[in-house]
Write a structure and sequence with these properties.
The chain is mostly helical and 172 residues long. It contains seven helices and two strands. It has a two-stranded antiparallel ribbon with strand order 1-2. Strand 1 and strand 2 form a beta hairpin. The radius of gyration is 21 Å and the shape is globular. The termini are far apart.
């Protein structure tokens, strides 16, 4: 009975296969919205999953419309490789210093992809992932040492950073 709505309507969407909802979400993420490392990692993640689904779910392959997925995957790998520093950290944007936050987010995406697909299939991605883990391990180790030093100085109620907790979560 709204005075501002002239033709109210409701749409109900139903699917017998919930996988379609995941596919719709992946299609939204397949092209990066910005030229930053997290957008490229998300694009790599989405396109890799779409490619994997097309191979493992033949009944969905025709409907997925995965043309160009291979090219988008390669482009994302090149961008990520270009944005990763020699220390293994990813920067937000090319030319910026490495970011613990950004690196943790990307490593978590790659870890999820590895878990869902039964491994990372591209050697360049595996190398980037391993470099990033070394960087994260070094950063977490340094944080633990700082916390131990502060504890010896009498500081109480010390808590690890969010990235350290996320590092432990990813590695579990």
């Amino acid at each position: 009975h709204s005075k501002t709505v002239s033709r109210p309507k409701m749409t109900i969407e139903f699917t017998g296969n919930p996988l379609w909802y995941a596919i719709q979400a992946l299609k939204v993420m397949e092209n990066p919205e910005s030229d930053n490392a997290l957008s490229w990692a998300t694009a790599y993640y989405a396109n890799s999953l779409l490619s994997h689904l097309a191979k493992t779910e033949p009944r969905l392959a025709d409907s997925l419309k995965v043309e160009g997925v291979g090219g988008r995957i390669e482009e994302a790998i090149l961008k990520l490789k270009d944005m990763q520093g020699k220390d293994g950290a990813w920067s937000w944007y090319k030319g910026m210093p490495g970011s613990l936050y950004m690196t943790t987010q990307i490593v978590e995406l790659l870890a999820r992809l590895q878990y869902m697909r039964g491994g990372l299939t591209n050697a360049e991605v595996v190398a980037m992932y391993q470099q990033a883990w070394k960087y994260l391990g070094k950063e977490v180790s340094e944080e633990v040492q700082r916390m131990k030093k502060l504890e010896k100085q009498g500081v109480k109620n010390l808590l690890p950073s969010e990235q350290t907790i996320q590092y432990l979560y990813i590695g579990a």
